[in-house]
Amino acid sequence: MSYSIRGTILQTPDPGRLEVLRDHVVTVDDAGVITDVGPDIGERATDLVMLSGTVLLPGLIDTHIHAPQWPQLGTGLDLSLQRWLLEYTFPLEARYSDLAFAENVWESMVPALLSRATTTAVYHSSVHEPATLALAETCARYGQRAFVGRVAMDERDVAPEWYRDGDAADAVAASHRSIEAIRAVPGGLVEPIVTPRFIPACTDAALEGLGELARATGVRVQTHCSESDWEHRYVLNRCGRTDTEALSSFGLVTDHTVLAHATHLTGDDRHIIGAAGAGVSHCPLSNAYFANAVFPAKASLECGLRVGLGTDIAGGSEASMLAQCHYAVTASRLLEEGVDAGRTTRRGVADSRLDVPAAFWMATGGGADLLGIPAGLLAPGRVFDAFAVDIGPTSTIGVHGEWDDWDRIFEKIVRRASPSDITTVWVNGRVVSPAG
Amino acid sequence: MSYSIRGTILQTPDPGRLEVLRDHVVTVDDAGVITDVGPDIGERATDLVMLSGTVLLPGLIDTHIHAPQWPQLGTGLDLSLQRWLLEYTFPLEARYSDLAFAENVWESMVPALLSRATTTAVYHSSVHEPATLALAETCARYGQRAFVGRVAMDERDVAPEWYRDGDAADAVAASHRSIEAIRAVPGGLVEPIVTPRFIPACTDAALEGLGELARATGVRVQTHCSESDWEHRYVLNRCGRTDTEALSSFGLVTDHTVLAHATHLTGDDRHIIGAAGAGVSHCPLSNAYFANAVFPAKASLECGLRVGLGTDIAGGSEASMLAQCHYAVTASRLLEEGVDAGRTTRRGVADSRLDVPAAFWMATGGGADLLGIPAGLLAPGRVFDAFAVDIGPTSTIGVHGEWDDWDRIFEKIVRRASPSDITTVWVNGRVVSPAG
Q1: Engineering a disulfide at B139: which of A59, A65, A263, B146 sits with its beta carbon 3.0 to 4.6 angstroms away?
Q2: Considering the entire predicted model, what is its pTM?
């Protein structure tokens, strides 16, 4: 049965603009698709009237998250990427051979993300098929839209023997089985995604096989690309070309491919990514720890690249996508200004600053565009993935009615809202948080 | 009557080290001073036993906060400092001529800061004496340790005619009256502080008079110093010397003077500050927006400079001092790594990274050292300013018992604790949050 909700909507139809729809009515059909958004002119039947101190925003899309790293969120970030992987991350991910351990983590993580209004998540899982299937099932059960990828990694020089695929054939076969298993999960919210961890952790044979698997199954691809100086140079040395060029040659840069980080792209790389219809998951907080530079988000958006935002749990220590918007703005300012006061000329990169609407757009419409899903905006034909935020006197946002216009309220929500201010979250028209 | 509390303490006796005191008993005397901290060997009477999923940490010291900017927290950060001051900040601060407006803000702000474990705050108030006195009285009533400074600003080229002191004599006389009024506030927790806003907003005559006022009254001084390229160059042009040199010549760099930001210091400036026993309030988030560079916190600590942390509300959008620790670590990584991937050499400043204990030290012991107050560590002779954090299964911190050692738990608390995880806050031995 269709229903309608009346309230004030704050959203970003494009990276440059906040749209305020005061007292509008959103009508949602049986399938969870929005059929109408219009001003409340008294002719629409309204099933739910939002409280006056509450606003409605499109759901947040986390385009890069390592699900098995949830228990280590917030730790180990003083280490180098190599030590972080070998001492923290790989030993933890290896534990997901234990299905009960995995299920316990997913049961805590998925509701925690939904309560932060992450209505869509693009997950790297571990190498384990049962744990990966359990993640997809948990998302389906809690009602989170998700792309779930079994991680493939078979390169013996980088992946330790206690946590890797046996060989390239194993990597491809297990990935194939995982795709089939996830496709059988009911509910229509969860899709598989081909997931070579990154070139350094995969043999050429595995990368070729996974590219062929993506083509044959029509499944999207995600991987890391030119995240750090180390990764970028490793691929140049091994493949004799850039990360993007090499991934492309393996058939792994296709329509809606999610390339995480992409901090060290060349101009040619950007052209390859744009021409393929692929894009970047920008993970601003993680990048401060592991990327050796700030991704030039503004310039990338201006040249038409698809860019979404990601938490990169646990490379970033923060699960909230609203916080990632704040980090994206803050990192863009540091890119523009530079960091070294001892340098008097060319300290930063001019014209790099993002504003809050641009960051929110990356977390909503940008992510939807990157993935090719009809989400990210409350408009007819899009799915009703949304969240309500309490901006009343008991919220932590601190709205001062006489002082704040809608631009300021929006800025306060993005920069200051805590999970306790998010009162309701919907995915595909259904309330998913608080859990019913 | 003295009392004792048993629990596990996490704290940083110096910038390089986390100290874990498992199941220790803290004894506090009538005056709120710690008389003993020792292992629970069964000989100590214990009045309060902390819950097993709770840890105890020293209270947080916010060394730079503009109290009247509380209503604008989280907004306007896309603007330049000049536009931000003239369009957002000064019009808001001017409203504190209305005492009822001021009292309403203080009533919301002080408990909000206490609930985030800010046990000591160093406030810039507005130019208004009644609003400033009301701030001191509100701190005393809620039990927050505070330094409260009436802002002096009389320079007509920078301060607008609708928000400034009449002239230099007015600025000094009003500051003097404000000191006397705050000294008369009972309770012993609140002290006045001489507060020229910054050199650009003050005439030489006012700065001279305020330096003399600080000397005559024995009151500490706070001001901004070399925050941005603009401020640094403005002072060089007007005074023919650096901000630090000029402030020093006015008698405004004295023992325990708080110089906010200090991003663009010279080596000589650091020597002047160190020799005077003054120090820096490092405001890492605000600096990303208004400082044009990252303060070199690690190098400053290593050369013995006193350094505390500040929120710089509302130049930073975040009221939590734990979050500022996280920003200090993150900013230090960007300083070390640099930001511009297009630069292949000398991208950042080597050896600049802070770890989490160093940042927490700045927020506790470093702030106490900067101010010259016996706080910042749970040890005999120090005041019992402290907070308890819930690390149990219902907290947002996400501790995984089998996985996390105390180093990881500490890192998770600093990076991930939300106000709802802070269960109790004490100042001077008295519970101040939740309000009794």
Answers
A1: B146
A2: 0.97
